[in-house]
C-alpha cells in the first residue's frame, strides 16, 4: 500500500469520539493490518496535523498513548517508529478483548434472533 | 529621540505626502503648461512662458496644496492601524512628516523665486516682507524673520489641515456634509452681518471693535505704522498659539478615531 | 503572560454589545471564538486590536496596556472582514508597507502561498473578489511576524479547495512558529479539530470557555423512548432536544451522573462541537 492509500483507508476522523483517541486507534489499526511494519516510521505529528487538519496537541496526545502502550517509540530528532513486537502486543490485547467485545455481543444478538447455541456454532463453522 | 517604529512611520507618511503632491503638481503642469502649449501650437499663438513663470507663486501654491493634503489622513490611518501602529505614533509621525513636507515646500518656493528669472524679487512677492519687511533696521534680520515666519506659518496651516481633517474623520459622510453646509451658511450670515453692521450707524461700535481686533492681529494696534513696518510680534504669537492648539487638538481627536465601515 | 481581556464592556448607543468579557489568550495555542451573528465577536476582536474603544475594561499583552503601545500592537495582527487596505494599492506594495511597519516580512513564504492560491501579487487590492481579498489577508497574516494572529471569518468567500489549502497552511505555520491563533468562524464543523481551546460567546457574554476536549466531554445526546430519556436526564442540564416519531433525544451539557443506571433502551453519546454550539446558542423557538 502506498502512503496515500494508507491515508485514505484509515484516516477518517468524524465519529463523536475524542479526536486523540481516534488518532491512536487509527495508527494502531494500521500497525495491526501491517500497513506500518515494525521498525517503520509512522507519520509525524506535524504531518498528521497538516494533512487532516487536527491540532498538533491533540495528535501528540494520541501518539503519547501509543508510546505509553509500547506500540511506538520516539527516536530523538528523527521521529516515531513502530516498536519491535508492537504487532504481537496488539494481537494479544485484541484477543483478550475479543470475548468481551465480540463474542458476548454476538450471543446477545443471536438470542434476540432466537438462534440456538447449536445453530450459532454451525453458522460460525460455515463462516470459517 | 524617535523609536525605530516612529521613524519608519514618519518616513512612510512623508513619502506618501510627497508622492501625492508630485502627482497633483504633475497634473497642474499638464493642465496649465502642456495643454496650453499644445493649443498654442495649433493656433500658432506662442505660449507666454515668461508671463506664466512670473505669475506662478510656487511657495504660496505649495502652501495651499500641502494644507489641503493635510486634511485627508484617514486612509493612512486605516492602513497603519491594520499594521499595528498606535494612534499616538500615527499622530507624531504625521506632525513630523508634514513639518518636513511644508518646510521643503517653502524652501522650494524661495529657491524658485531666487533661481528662476522673470520672477519678482523675493521680498516683493512675499506678503510678510510687504507688511513687516522694514520692521528691523537690519535688513538681514528682516529676511531671517521672514524665513522663520513663512516656514512656521506654512507648517501651522498644515497642522490646521490635520486638525480639521481629523475632526471631520470623526463624523460619518452624511454628518460631514451637514456640518459643511452649516459652516458655509454660518459664514455667509456672519460676513453679511459684519458688512451690514459696517454700513449702519447703529452697529458701528461692533464693527469698529472687529476692525480693531484685525488691526491688532496683523500687528498694527495703534493704526499709525506704514505698510512694511508693522510689528510682527503679535502675528508670531498668534500663529504659535494656533500651532499649539492644532497640535494638541489633533492628538486628542486622533485618540478618538474609530474604524468605520465605509 | 499572553493577552488578557478584563471585564470588557461595549455599548453602542442603547445597545449593549459586550457585557463584561473576561478571557485570556496564552502563547502557542489555537483558540476558537464562536458565536452567532451579532453575538459581539467582531466587536471584541476590534477592541483587542485597538481599532475601537471599550466602554469599560482593559486589554493587556504581557501586562502592558495594548491601546497606545506600538510594542504591544506589533505583536498583534487582526485579519478582518473589514478592508483597511486601500483599494488602489497593488498587493506587492501592500506587502512592502507591511514589512516596513511590522519590521519584517517573510517574502519567500508569501510568494509560495500566492502561487499555491494562484493569487497574482501585481493586482490592485480593489480588483480582488471577496474570496481573494480573504486569501490576500490570510497570506499577510501568515507571513507577518506578529505573535498573536486573530482571524475574523478567515473563510469568507473561500471555496472548499482553498479552505482545505488554508487549513493545511495554518497547521504547517503553527507547527513551525508556534504562535497563537484566534479564529472566529461560523464553519465550526471544519474548524473543530484545529482548535485547542474554545470560547463560545452569546449575547455579549462568555458562555463556555475551555479545552475543546474537556468541553465536549461534558456534552451528550441522550436518545431513546421519550419516557426513559426524560427519566434518565431529570436534573441534568438539558440544552435542547429533538424527536423523531417515538424516539426522543435530549442534548445535555455539564456531564451526566455516572451513578445513574442507563436503561438498555437509552443510548448515550457525545456531541461534536457544532451540535453543542447550535444547542447552546439556539434562541427560544428556534429548532
UniProtKB/TrEMBL annotation, chain A:
<dbReference type="GO" id="GO:0003677">
    <property type="term" value="F:DNA binding"/>
</dbReference>
<keyword id="KW-0238">DNA-binding</keyword>
<keyword id="KW-0804">Transcription</keyword>
<feature type="domain" description="HTH gntR-type">
    <location>
        <begin position="17"/>
        <end position="85"/>
    </location>
</feature>
<dbReference type="InterPro" id="IPR000524">
    <property type="entry name" value="Tscrpt_reg_HTH_GntR"/>
</dbReference>
<dbReference type="InterPro" id="IPR036390">
    <property type="entry name" value="WH_DNA-bd_sf"/>
</dbReference>
<dbReference type="InterPro" id="IPR036388">
    <property type="entry name" value="WH-like_DNA-bd_sf"/>
</dbReference>
<protein>
    <submittedName>
        <fullName>GntR family transcriptional regulator</fullName>
    </submittedName>
</protein>
<keyword id="KW-0805">Transcription regulation</keyword>
<dbReference type="Pfam" id="PF00392">
    <property type="entry name" value="GntR"/>
</dbReference>
<dbReference type="GO" id="GO:0003700">
    <property type="term" value="F:DNA-binding transcription factor activity"/>
</dbReference>
TrEMBL record, chain B:
<keyword id="KW-1133">Transmembrane helix</keyword>
<protein>
    <submittedName>
        <fullName>ABC transporter, permease</fullName>
    </submittedName>
</protein>
<feature type="transmembrane region" description="Helical">
    <location>
        <begin position="139"/>
        <end position="165"/>
    </location>
</feature>
<feature type="transmembrane region" description="Helical">
    <location>
        <begin position="234"/>
        <end position="254"/>
    </location>
</feature>
<keyword id="KW-0472">Membrane</keyword>
<feature type="transmembrane region" description="Helical">
    <location>
        <begin position="21"/>
        <end position="42"/>
    </location>
</feature>
<keyword id="KW-0812">Transmembrane</keyword>
<feature type="transmembrane region" description="Helical">
    <location>
        <begin position="177"/>
        <end position="198"/>
    </location>
</feature>
<feature type="transmembrane region" description="Helical">
    <location>
        <begin position="95"/>
        <end position="119"/>
    </location>
</feature>
<feature type="transmembrane region" description="Helical">
    <location>
        <begin position="57"/>
        <end position="74"/>
    </location>
</feature>
TrEMBL record, chain C:
<dbReference type="InterPro" id="IPR003593">
    <property type="entry name" value="AAA+_ATPase"/>
</dbReference>
<dbReference type="Pfam" id="PF00005">
    <property type="entry name" value="ABC_tran"/>
</dbReference>
<keyword id="KW-0067">ATP-binding</keyword>
<feature type="domain" description="ABC transporter">
    <location>
        <begin position="3"/>
        <end position="228"/>
    </location>
</feature>
<dbReference type="GO" id="GO:0005524">
    <property type="term" value="F:ATP binding"/>
</dbReference>
<dbReference type="GO" id="GO:0016887">
    <property type="term" value="F:ATP hydrolysis activity"/>
</dbReference>
<dbReference type="InterPro" id="IPR003439">
    <property type="entry name" value="ABC_transporter-like_ATP-bd"/>
</dbReference>
<dbReference type="InterPro" id="IPR027417">
    <property type="entry name" value="P-loop_NTPase"/>
</dbReference>
<keyword id="KW-0547">Nucleotide-binding</keyword>
<protein>
    <submittedName>
        <fullName>ABC transporter, ATP-binding protein</fullName>
    </submittedName>
</protein>
Amino acid at each position: 500500500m502506498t502512503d496515500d492509500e494508507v491515508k485514505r483507508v484509515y484516516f477518517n476522523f468524524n465519529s463523536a469520539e475524542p479526536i486523540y483517541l481516534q488518532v491512536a486507534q487509527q495508527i494502531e489499526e494500521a500497525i495491526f493490518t501491517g500497513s506500518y511494519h515494525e521498525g517503520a516510521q509512522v507519520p509525524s505529528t506535524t504531518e498528521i496535523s497538516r494533512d487532516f487538519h487536527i491540532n498538533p496537541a491533540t495528535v501528540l496526545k494520541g501518539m503519547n498513548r501509543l508510546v505509553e502502550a509500547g506500540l511506538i517509540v520516539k527516536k530523538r530528532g528523527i521521529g516515531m517508529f513502530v516498536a519491535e513486537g508492537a504487532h504481537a502486543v496488539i494481537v494479544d490485547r485484541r484477543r483478550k478483548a475479543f470475548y468481551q467485545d465480540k463474542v458476548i455481543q454476538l450471543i446477545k444478538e443471536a438470542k434476540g434472533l432466537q438462534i440456538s447455541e447449536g445453530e450459532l456454532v454451525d453458522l460460525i463453522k460455515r463462516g470459517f | 529621540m524617535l523609536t525605530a517604529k516612529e521613524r519608519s512611520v514618519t518616513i512612510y507618511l512623508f513619502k506618501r505626502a510627497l508622492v501625492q503632491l508630485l502627482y497633483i503638481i504633475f497634473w497642474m503642469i499638464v493642465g496649465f503648461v502642456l495643454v496650453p502649449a499644445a493649443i498654442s501650437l495649433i493656433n500658432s499663438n506662442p505660449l507666454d512662458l515668461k508671463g506664466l513663470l512670473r505669475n506662478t507663486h510656487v511657495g504660496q501654491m505649495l502652501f495651499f496644496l500641502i494644507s489641503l493634503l493635510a486634511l485627508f489622513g484617514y486612509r493612512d490611518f486605516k492602513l497603519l492601524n491594520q499594521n499595528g501602529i498606535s494612534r499616538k505614533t500615527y499622530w507624531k509621525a504625521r506632525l513630523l512628516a508634514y513639518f518636513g513636507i511644508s518646510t521643503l515646500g517653502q524652501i522650494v518656493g524661495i529657491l524658485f523665486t531666487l533661481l528662476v528669472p522673470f520672477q519678482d524679487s523675493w521680498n516683493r512677492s512675499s506678503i510678510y516682507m510687504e507688511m513687516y519687511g522694514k520692521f528691523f533696521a537690519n535688513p538681514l534680520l528682516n529676511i531671517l524673520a521672514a524665513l522663520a515666519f513663512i516656514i512656521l506659518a506654512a507648517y501651522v496651516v498644515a497642522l490646521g489641515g490635520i486638525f480639521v481633517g481629523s475632526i471631520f474623520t470623526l463624523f460619518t459622510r452624511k454628518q460631514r456634509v451637514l456640518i459643511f453646509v452649516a459652516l458655509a451658511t454660518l459664514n455667509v450670515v456672519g460676513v453679511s452681518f459684519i458688512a451690514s453692521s459696517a454700513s449702519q450707524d447703529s452697529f458701528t461700535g461692533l464693527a469698529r471693535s472687529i476692525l480693531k481686533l484685525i488691526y491688532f492681529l496683523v500687528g498694527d494696534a495703534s493704526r499709525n505704522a506704514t505698510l512694511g513696518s508693522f510689528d510682527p510680534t503679535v502675528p508670531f504669537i498668534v500663529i504659535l498659539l494656533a500651532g499649539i492648539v492644532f497640535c494638541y487638538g489633533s492628538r486628542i481627536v486622533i485618540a478618538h478615531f474609530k474604524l468605520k465601515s465605509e | 503572560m499572553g493577552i488578557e481581556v478584563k471585564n470588557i464592556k461595549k455599548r453602542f448607543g442603547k445597545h449593549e454589545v459586550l457585557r463584561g468579557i473576561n478571557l485570556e489568550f496564552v502563547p502557542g495555542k489555537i483558540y476558537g471564538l464562536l458565536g452567532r451573528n451579532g453575538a459581539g465577536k467582531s466587536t471584541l476582536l476590534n477592541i483587542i486590536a485597538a481599532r475601537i474603544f471599550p466602554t469599560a475594561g482593559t486589554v493587556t499583552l504581557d501586562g502592558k496596556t495594548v491601546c497606545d503601545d506600538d510594542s504591544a500592537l506589533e505583536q498583534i495582527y487582526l485579519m478582518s472582514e473589514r478592508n483597511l487596505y486601500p483599494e488602489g494599492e497593488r498587493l506587492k506594495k501592500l506587502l512592502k508597507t507591511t514589512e516596513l511597519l511590522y519590521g519584517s516580512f517573510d517574502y519567500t513564504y508569501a510568494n509560495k502561498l500566492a502561487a499555491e492560491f494562484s493569487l497574482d501579487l501585481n493586482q490592485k487590492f480593489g480588483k480582488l473578489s471577496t474570496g481573494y481579498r480573504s486569501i490576500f489577508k490570510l497570506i499577510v497574516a501568515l507571513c507577518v511576524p506578529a505573535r498573536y494572529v486573530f482571524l475574523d471569518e478567515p473563510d469568507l468567500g473561500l471555496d472548499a479547495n482553498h479552505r482545505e489549502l488554508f487549513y493545511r497552511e495554518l497547521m504547517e505555520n503553527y507547527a513551525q512558529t508556534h504562535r497563537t491563533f484566534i479564529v472566529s468562524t461560523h464553519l465550526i464543523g471544519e474548524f473543530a479539530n484545529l482548535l485547542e481551546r474554545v470560547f463560545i460567546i452569546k449575547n455579549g457574554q462568555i458562555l463556555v470557555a475551555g479545552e475543546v476536549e474537556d468541553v465536549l466531554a461534558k456534552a451528550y445526546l441522550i436518545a431513546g423512548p421519550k419516557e426513559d430519556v426524560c427519566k434518565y436526564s431529570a436534573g441534568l442540564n438539558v440544552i435542547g432536544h429533538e424527536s423523531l416519531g417515538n424516539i426522543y433525544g435530549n442534548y445535555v451539557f455539564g456531564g451526566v451522573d455516572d451513578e445513574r443506571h442507563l436503561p438498555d433502551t437509552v443510548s448515550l453519546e457525545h456531541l461534536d462541537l457544532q451540535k453543542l454550539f447550535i444547542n447552546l446558542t439556539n434562541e427560544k423557538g428556534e429548532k
